[in-house]
Amino acid sequence: MINKLVTNDLPRPAPRSSEPEVLASEIIERLTYRIGKDVKVAKPHDWLTATILVIRDRVIDKWMESTRKAYQHDSKRVYYLSLEFLIGRLMRDAISNLGLMGEIKDALTSLGVEFDVIAGLEPDAALGNGGLGRLAACFMESMATVDIPAYGYGIRYVHGLFRQQMAEGWQVELPETWLAHGNPWEFERRESSYEIGFGGSVETVGGYEDPERFVWKPAERMIATAFDTPVVGWRGTRVNTLRLWSAQPIDPILLDAFNAGDHIGALRESNKAEALTRVLYPADANPAGQELRLRQEYFFSSASLQDILRRHLQQYPDFTNLADKVSIQLNDTHPAISIAEMMRLLGDVHGLTFEESWTITRNTFSYTNHTLLPEALESWPVPLLERLLPRHMQIIYAINAQTLLYARKEKKMLDQQVRSISVIEEGGERRVRMGNLAFIGSHSINGVSALHTELMKETVFSDLHTLYPDRINNKTNGITPRRWLMQCNPGLTDLIRESIGDEFLDDAEKLVALDRFAEDAGFREKFAEIKRQNKVRLANLVAQRMGIRVDPSAMFDIQIKRIHEYKRQLLNLVEAVALYDQIRSRPELDWVPRVKFFAGKAAPSYHNAKLIIKLANDIARVINNDPAVRGLLKVVFIPNYNVSLAEIMVPAADLSEQISTAGMEASGTGNMKFGLNGALTIGTLDGANVEMLEHVGADNIVIFGKTAAEVAQARSEGHNPRAIIENSAELSQAVSSIASGVFSPDDRSRFAELMDGIYNTDWFMVAADFDAYAQAQRDVDAIWSEPASWYEKTVRNTARMGWFSSDRTIRQYASEIWRA
């Protein structure tokens, strides 16, 4: 019946008018009847909600049309499983993609409402930590844009990633309350609810002649309920669904316990369920945190797979064609337990044999790896998995046995190779390696930049690559130009349209036509003026939020990303101290005025990352208040980095810092956003910087430091950072100043341990790359001192960044992995 309803021709609602007068009338109607407010007493947040509801109605029309089309055309669906979706604010995105920005602004103006004011009130959906979650959001938008039927699956975190505040320069984590006043974009789908189990036991059933079946009897159960958010593609081509799961108890209150006086204990089932979807990335430094993280990953994986299989059976009689109609992409290792869960559902619930289930599973799943860092390739203690997911542990052992027997007997692999590919890590504490499980259970494993993909083959997955040589492939990341150019930088977008026409709006690679304007002095002048306007906007934000005055005429040098030692904010800070010393020592030189901006969050349990934030704020306090610097250098750490802040900082950047230790950044997408908005990149040959170098040209990017191969060689041969520091006067003085407490007079030993790490091991090559980095910064100064040269290079960056559109990435996934 459901299938007939969506495939038959049914009456369609009449197209809605987009005239400003009609939109204004609809906004007042929503304000009155949906929000219950009179125009005279309506507050800005009321106007925001009313406007969203008007836009949402138009989105719904296209959403339903997209769903009908997928059924009518018997389309293959892509399911993107990600623990993070850093989607940010949605209103501007939807309005822009529907082509209604001018009409909506006119409608609100006629009502005495300023669009930018109410747009700024929309909460950021903080459902991600950084690049991984933002990539997932870009991919969802691009899948809708290139007309691929798709669902994104994740968790509806009540608080998401923490809100960051500063207390005496230290990071303080506070709950992010993006759902406090509801979410007008989402729809609860009570009919799409699934039971999720934990713990318990496994029983074997079946007679002597009957096939053996396994029945898992969980000790603990809860309900996953779906909340759907529409994701609009460019020009409304398609509207796909982001389905987020919320946990609910089966018994919200234990009445017997409550009536017996145990009022707190009576709510324990509700508390367990609420805790599951309350916070993104609970700290996992303790066993309770580890268990909660694993529960989250299984919870959303199981709910998503049950939903996928239910939808498939609505349309087809069985699962023999599942891999032809369904493609499931695992975004990193977080949803890797899905491999075992799919085997359980197909075998234990739907009665397929192990061999049938395994063939379907491997042909349906594909896996994106985002890191070469061992700590980021998740693994779980075997006892934890056996206790929490006993049936899945049995399935994992069965998968592992089959794989190891194949490796030993068919491929003649040696003991060390067999140990390397095993899903069970036997050295020390026995752990389940989720990266290996995802690799073995998928038909495609992709890296996210050319360098990262090759390093995958050589390092973390070298023996698995030997076992399955045809599985690893590359899909270099991309960004959506709708949000990261058209929306965040309308001034530049208008200039480009005036210069080369509108083709780039539909195909970002058409931006290359802008290349010829790099040598046009008149165009460069307009380009520079737009950059200055964006810098003024950022300067005003910093003044309002932090009380710090910065000069928009100075070079805006920006590093915004998750705080991590391999991303080397520390290298940037040490160079800032060295530059500070030079400016004071050589005041007669012609120094380039520079503002170093930082923003990003440190994981709550990551001590050194939080110490780096404190160092940035301590350095800023000293430098910004020293009259000897004469305003030539300022350091600003802006708290609570999120998508909305990035949309202001990215267009304002003159210099983009992409300085990770070579071989450790999988791709990066901030580098692409900055380049697209006309920033010059200073970076290492790491991640997608390698491909950016190829596309923008060596003259239009500043590359420094050791390559990935040189980093590996230095580590293997015994790197001696102490000798390097002692032979570099600037580095030695900077490290000594920081270690001795020049920037922390209240606690002179505060940063001693951090500097000892550079002196003694320098794992992240801060000392090794410092002199090259400092020289590269002086090269940047020289380019900046010649404005014609500077803007010629930055115009070429914008012109040549079209290849890094997520539309291109998604088309490659669709043709080479998903066959969609």
Automatic annotation (TrEMBL):
Molecular function via GO: glycogen phosphorylase activity; pyridoxal phosphate binding
Reaction(s) the record says it catalyses: [(1->4)-alpha-D-glucosyl](n) + phosphate = [(1->4)-alpha-D-glucosyl](n-1) + alpha-D-glucose 1-phosphate
Enzyme Commission no: 2.4.1.1
Provenance organism: Agrobacterium bohemicum
Coiled-coil parts of chain: none
Protein family membership: Belongs to the glycogen phosphorylase family.
Keywords: Allosteric enzyme, Carbohydrate metabolism, Cytoplasm, Glycosyltransferase, Pyridoxal phosphate, Transferase
Protein name: Alpha-1,4 glucan phosphorylase
InterPro entries in the record: Glycg_phsphrylas, Glyco_trans_35, Pyridoxal_P_attach_site
Cofactor(s) the protein needs: pyridoxal 5'-phosphate
Superkingdom as given in the UniProt entry: Bacteria
Residues that bear N6-(pyridoxal phosphate)lysine: 673
Gene Ontology CC entries for this record: cytoplasm
Record's signal peptide: none
GO BP of this protein: glycogen catabolic process
Location of the protein in the cell: Cytoplasm
Function per UniProt: Allosteric enzyme that catalyzes the rate-limiting step in glycogen catabolism, the phosphorolytic cleavage of glycogen to produce glucose-1-phosphate, and plays a central role in maintaining cellular and organismal glucose homeostasis.
